[in-house]
Amino acid sequence: MDPLTLAIAATPSFIASAVEFVEATTIVLAVGVTRGWRAPLLGTAAATVTLAVIIGTLGVAIVTVVPEHLLKGVVGTLLLLFGLRWLRKAILRFAGIVAIHDEELIYLRELAELREQGLRKNEFDWVGFLVAYKAVLLEGTEVAFIVIAFGAAGGAALSSAVAGAIVAGILVIALGVALQKPLTMVPENWLKFGVGAMLCSFGVFWFAESLGMQWPGDALSIPLIVVTFLAASWLAVRMLKTLLPEGAQIEARNV
Amino acid sequence: MFKGVWSTLVGLLIEDGQLAIGALVALAITWLLAAEGGDQTQQVVGWALLAMVLVLVVANLYRAGLVARARLSSARR
């Protein structure tokens, strides 16, 4: 595969993984800045090893045991369900009905909570270790899910998905280390909006393929489906802004 | 990790339950169309699924907008 094709194929996995890496990096940075770096870095390393074991065992089992059309059907269903959730929240945030997800606020809240819990000298910081471990494991599981979903076709698709996730991880972590601050410059809602539309599109594409449909132009139909989702989402934002011009800023679970 | 999986499932099926159930119904209709229809139907099920999902998203958000407006006006009273 030439580098340009690889870059195009890796883009969905890159963007989706970047969102998860931003969340994990923000939490690890908050722990490191307030309580020292040893425990959160060990927590991060332990979570990475746990993830590698989970992916190594489950990932291989899934690919070798489950028939391809069934795998595409299941993955398509999951992608559509998760994608719709992201897309819905992103639209509600853009329309001002739900508050924008603020990494800076999350970072400050995490700092305050960790400072409240205190830390004694010469004692291993289990709180810092566990907070980092939990964050990296949870967000890492989502990255693994994204990679498996986008790479479900196997071969080149899997390599591209893995490459996209690795580049996203390196880039986000490097930015986090360089800035030592939450990654507030990453427009998270825009990313979630785009990724939500992409996940939904891949979900629709694979589910229909698993039922025997051949899309016109094969994978070339995907950009058309993404654009359709984005256009419908933009219309939904306009509709909500007409309904509630001043916004509402209420909890997502209450709508 | 199980806590994370659990919270995701709860979020998916309870917080966004109506959307998730609607999507599952759309997937079931698509599967039925492909299973019961002929070869020609099979080649358009993807577009049918796309149309159903788009209608579902817009309808769900419209309802969410109405709920938010009702909550806001009752809070102001």
Structure notes:
The complex is a heterodimer of chains A (255) and B (77). Chain A has one domain. In chain A, 78% of the residues lie in helices and 0% in strands. Chain A is built from 8 helices and no strands. Chain A is globular and about 60 Å long. The model of chain A has no long low-confidence stretch (mean pLDDT 80). Chain B has one domain. Chain B has 4 helices and no strands. In chain B, helix 1 (2-15) crosses helix 2 and helix 2 packs antiparallel against helix 4. Chain B starts with a helix and ends with a helix. Classes of the chains: A mainly alpha (255), B mainly alpha (77).
Brief descriptors of the model:
A: 255 residues; mainly alpha; B: 77 residues; 4 helices; 91% helix; elongated
Proportion in helices of chain B: over 70%
- Uncertain ranges of chain B: none
**What ranges of chain A have pLDDT less than 50 throughout 5 or more consecutive residues?**
none
Distance between the termini of chain A: 45 Å
Mean pLDDT of chain B comes to: 83
Task: Give the termini distance of chain B in whole angstroms.
Answer: 43 Å
**What percentage of amino acids of chain B are in beta strands?**
under 5%
How would you sum up the major sheet of chain B?
none
Number of strands of chain B: 0
Q: How many helices of chain A in DSSP terms? A: 8
Shape of chain B: elongated
Number of discrete helical segments of chain B: 4
Structural class of chain B: mainly alpha
Assembly status: heterodimer
Q: Give the SSE order of chain A as H and E letters.
A: HHHHHHHH
Radius of gyration of chain B: 17 Å
Tell me the radius of gyration of chain A.
20 Å
**What is the average per-residue confidence, as pLDDT of chain A, rounded to a whole number?**
80
The H-and-E topology of chain B, N to C, reads as: HHHH
